Amino acid sequence: MTIPRPVLALMARxxxxxxxxxxxxxxxxxxxxxxxxHRGRLEALHRGVYRLAGAAVSxxxxxxxxxxxxxxxxxxxxxxxxxLYGIEGALLSGTPTVLVPPSRAVAGAEFVVRRSAVxxxxxxxxxxxxxxxxxxxxxxxxxxxxxxRVRQAVDSARWLGLLRIERLTRRAERLGRxx
Length: 179
Prior knowledge:
3-stranded antiparallel β-sheet; 8 helices; 2 domains; about 15% strand; alpha+beta; 8 strands
């Protein structure tokens, strides 16, 4: 059996990726999935996350694969989230950090998993990757980065028109953090 067109269309919108759950929800059987992997039509990137063979490889694809592996409601955080926004000094490369709901455990991940509630106000999709909104992403980076890096990220986000200090301050207060 060939991969159905609706599945290919979804993968085209998702950097060439799909999850096992998405395949099953679209009527594909476990044996279909296993057959496509065995024949090289799909490549397993993470447990339950597949890449269409021949799909263009990109940093966004790797980041989306990590988020998909972490499950629903997961969001890209850290420097890579800032890089998706084009923030100066942030790189798409490196080990991604993914936030998952407090009740979720992600075993065997090849990326950093942090448990934290991510309300709808903090969620965004940037370049096709579920990520944190820029305010929350800056605050997450501020947890571990030095003052100079945080100032650089804030200044860059402001320059790009992505961040207002008032919004950052309000978000930090709601999270109980100092910006």
